[in-house]
Amino acid sequence: MKKTTIKVHQPKSFNNRRQFLKLGGLAVAGTGLLMACSNDDDQNMMPPPEGGIFDLGEGDLGVLNYAYALEQLEADFYTKVVNSFYANITDEERQVLTDLYYHEVNHRDFFNAAISAAVEGNTDLMLPTLEFDYGDLDFSNRAQVLGTAKVLEDTGVAAYNGAGRLISNPDYLLIAGKIVSVEARHASAIRTLINPNSADFAGDDVVTVDTGLDAALDPSDILAAVSATGFIKTEFTANNLP
Amino acid sequence: MNIINFLDDFTTSSILEGKTSRRDIFGTLGTLGKKAAMAAVPLGLAAMPKKTYAQSMNTDPVGALQLALTLEYLEDEFYDLALQSGVLPSGRPETVYMQISKHEQAHVDFLIAGLEGAGVTPVSKPTFDFTVGGTFDPFNDNGVGQETAYAQLLALAQAFEDTGVRAYKGQAGNLLGSPFLTAALQIHSVEARHASEIRRLRGLKGWITGNERGAGMPDATQPVYNGEENVMQGGLDVTTLGSGAAFSMDASTEAYDEALSGDDAVAIASLFIVEE
């Protein structure tokens, strides 16, 4: 089984966690939250409910878990990319892929902390750390790495765009907005690396020509597409999201 | 509805009159002369709205869409004029501007249709002055020369796209629960794709580090980037999430784009709007 080389860090300070609770919405200030997860070396969060398959949940928590799943995938993918760059990588490609790795790891750990705060210690409600398997994907192959990055970034954009309407807490909506535009910046850069000097950065394949609108997809569509890649080994469901 | 009413008479003239800051802010882009003083008012810091325009639309989806339309008018005309100017080198720059221009035109049409569909009269298209009173010459109309004009075209495009991303983000909350939210998000991410490409065309990263406006950007564009250095997300300092470069200040600010208030977006746009 492959394991990421990046540890999922918990926030260092309990004060930060309490501060986070002020986000509101799902979070209710309390004591004793997340003591089970306070060990910095505890990479695996709580296991999913025994005998059952984890469901992302509904409402804002469902969206947070959904975003966490996608960010875990992106972070894990780029971790593998940067740990063994394909041969003859250009300086520009190395810089872009390294930045994307940083950003996605930051996003992943942000959602880890956000959900930890939101579920207030009830980690049965929190998506566990996922396991990944990239099958035949060849990380030494530039076209495969950049092609996969393009799919992941475009998918992230469409996922956040489609999930916005499912969010009821404006603070969460704002954070989703802060992240989705960075995913779109990534997608643009990756697309230009793949096809320089082209209009692909916002290509007609992803931005509808007559409206100028990017894609927006429901979780069920996104997760079906992600599932089709076979990348995510850990089973979970999204029965309470559209 | 007249744009001037909508913007609550934040006209170019009122912005530019009576300011005292006189730093040579456009030096890197040349052509200063006697009109340099007019450009010495940093974007967005000029003439902040006195009538609290943004407050009046704080919870108003229509106001959010009208602001969006105003920004799209600005971008659409800018790219049209850029493509007509002959300043853009063929190849990548022209290809990029053509694709962006196509989207901005579509956004204008889409927002007008959306507002009219909701029974609202869209704001009228303002009269724009992309020279900001003659300080810039992005279309080489006044003979600044192709090289300088092109540098200005790129710098303005970056400022407009990065502003657009922040402005849409700032209106998302006003569209919460509105049928327009998803469409606004779909435009927002297209602006971010544009921004990344323009920045990279200029030799920068596609994302914003700290509050850096980037090499070659006039000081006056700094208000477009102020606040981007924020690391507090949802009450949590994301630099404390872990150790290593992924949680450095650079990565932690790059990983999250920040919102711009309606006031700040209007103030930036207003510098390029002329009262008729």
TrEMBL record, chain A:
Pfam families attached to this UniProt entry: Ferritin_2
Q: Which domain of life is it from?
A: Bacteria
Q: Which InterPro entries match?
A: Ferritin-like_SF
Instruction: Indicate what this protein is called per its UniProt record.
Output: Ferritin-like domain-containing protein
Question: What organism, scientifically named, is this protein from?
Answer: Galbibacter orientalis DSM 19592
From TrEMBL, chain B:
The name this protein carries in UniProt is Ferritin-like domain-containing protein
Pfam families named among the record's database cross-references: Ferritin_2
Classify the source by domain of life: Bacteria
Organism field: Galbibacter orientalis DSM 19592
